[in-house]
């Protein structure tokens, strides 16, 4: 019998298992995949390590890494992003003064300064609620600094400052009518960048750093072995049954897999109302990812060439270049890609990940990128189910991935909060 089985070695599972193991618990992590990091993981393509899902880090609070003692840095490029608008490039510079100068070309100098001040204030207010239990919408509405996060939509805030053609720089179109919280969430003042750890640069650096931390903290991480069932007896968790048929008994099971998969496919007896809510949580159109490895460094065409470290926000999706590698997430199109990349003909290897691949690879049915939609119905104390937080009605079964507060993307916060809930409960029980 172990103390805790963690399902999933994504970044949240690795964060949670490291914290649990450091508290002296006997922890074993199982992941069906052969790589650590889940959607923030990587594999080898054409002899190079390439990311399979996430590509930049931004939402993760520094305190998550500090708490684990992980010496990982995030290298934010300057400009952070280059946004294509009507065939011209709008640069999002790190320096506020330079940014104002840039936007003056579109007659929006003062507006962008005021908009940024607002975003920073909203982000600060949102982050105050990241740790601990999820806040209710009502609690946020009563906090003068946080009220706008729930009382206004992202559209309300953006329309106060900027014409609509600039909004995609800050938020995906399908989220414009959702709470302004999402505008704050997706726009951290520090910007987005590539993780750097011990000389490695790229998303694989984050996964390797967290994997190493989990192992060094004493957690056992078993890759390539999935969980096919969470075993429950008389309303309490007994352990998990692996794909191999082996039963691993545990005092607690913390699933960082999608709540849809965990609650609909791994356990039985979930309340029909909850099951329906999860079944109905349909994904908005999911992304495709194109990974390309060239036999020489990527040559960008004029216009983009000076900014090769930046995140390119193009009509077909977001493009990232790294030496001889490039990726596009969104709706990649080879024909269009040639208009940005001079030497695409030097391709050594490429692959395409489809929305269906994401669903099947990660067991992330429905809203796979963030496990559940980032939409009002699934935010705040209603992520994943109103009033649950990180616990479930099954004693000893916890949830702690992107489908829990504060939500998806690379943050590590659900992992921290869920680990704390497990620790609190296990210290009370013999
Ligand atoms: C194409 C794409 C691009 C993205 N870009 C970004 C980005 O640039 N920046 C950003 O911050 N976020 C990005 N995201 C979102 C981000 O990657 C995820 O929200 C985040 O990584 C989720 O982390 P997690 O640990 O909660 O879950 P996951 O990473 O999904 O980890 C859960 C793990 O559980 C495992 N699992 C599932 N079922 C079982 C089972 N039955 N038994 C054993 N193991 C199981 C899965 O294999 C998986 O490894 C992107 C996602 C995608 C798909």
TrEMBL record:
Residues 13-259 form the Amine oxidase domain. InterPro entries: Amino_oxidase, FAD/NAD-bd_sf. It comes from the Archaea. GO terms for molecular function: oxidoreductase activity. Transmembrane segments: none annotated. Gene3D superfamilies: FAD/NAD(P)-binding domain. Interacts with COX5B; this interaction may contribute to localize PYROXD2 to the inner face of the inner mitochondrial membrane. Probable oxidoreductase that may play a role as regulator of mitochondrial function. This is Pyridine nucleotide-disulfide oxidoreductase domain-containing protein 2. It holds the Pfam family Amino_oxidase.
């Amino acid at each position: 019998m172990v103390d805790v089985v963690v399902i999933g070695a994504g970044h949240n599972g690795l964060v949670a298992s490291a914290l649990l193991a450091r508290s002296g618990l006997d922890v074993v992590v199982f992941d069906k995949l052969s790589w650590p990091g889940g959607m923030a993981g990587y594999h080898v393509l054409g002899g190079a390590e390439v990311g399979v899902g996430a590509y930049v880090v931004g939402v993760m609070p520094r305190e998550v890494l500090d708490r684990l003692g992980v010496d990982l840095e995030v290298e934010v490029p300057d400009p952070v992003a280059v946004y294509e608008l009507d065939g011209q490039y709008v640069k999002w510079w790190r320096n506020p003064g330079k940014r104002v100068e840039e936007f003056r070309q579109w007659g929006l100098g003062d507006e962008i300064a005021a908009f940024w001040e607002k975003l920073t204030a909203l982000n600060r207010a949102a982050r105050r609620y990241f740790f601990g239990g999820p806040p209710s919408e009502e609690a946020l509405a009563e906090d003068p600094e946080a009220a706008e996060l729930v009382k206004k939509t992202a559209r309300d805030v953006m329309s106060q400052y900027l014409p609509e053609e600039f909004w995609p720089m800050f938020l995906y179109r399908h989220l414009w009518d959702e709470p302004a919280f999402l505008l704050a969430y997706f726009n951290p003042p520090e910007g987005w960048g590539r993780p750097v750890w011990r000389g490695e640069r790229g998303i694989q650096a984050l996964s390797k750093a967290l994997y190493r931390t989990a192992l060094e903290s004493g957690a056992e991480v078993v890759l390539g072995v999935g969980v096919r069932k969470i075993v429950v007896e008389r309303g309490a968790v007994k352990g998990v049954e692996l794909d191999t048929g082996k039963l691993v008994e545990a005092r607690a099971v913390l699933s960082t897999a999608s709540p849809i998969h965990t609650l609909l496919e791994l356990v039985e007896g979930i309340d029909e109302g909850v099951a329906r809510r999860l079944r109905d949580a349909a994904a908005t159109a999911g992304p495709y990812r194109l990974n390309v490895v060239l036999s020489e460094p990527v040559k960008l065409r004029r216009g983009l060439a000076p900014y090769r470290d930046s995140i390119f926000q193009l009509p077909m999706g977001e493009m990232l270049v790294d030496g001889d590698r490039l990726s596009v997430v969104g709706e990649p199109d080879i024909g269009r890609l040639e208009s940005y990349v001079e030497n695409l003909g030097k391709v050594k290897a490429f692959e395409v990940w489809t929305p269906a691949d994401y669903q099947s690879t990660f067991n992330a049915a429905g809203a796979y990128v963030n496990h559940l939609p980032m939409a009002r119905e699934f935010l705040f104390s209603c992520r994943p189910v109103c009033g649950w937080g990180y616990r479930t009605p099954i004693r000893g079964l916890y949830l702690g991935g992107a489908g829990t507060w504060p939500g998806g993307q690379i943050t590590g916060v659900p992992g921290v909060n869920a680990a704390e809930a497990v620790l609190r409960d296990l210290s009370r029980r013999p």
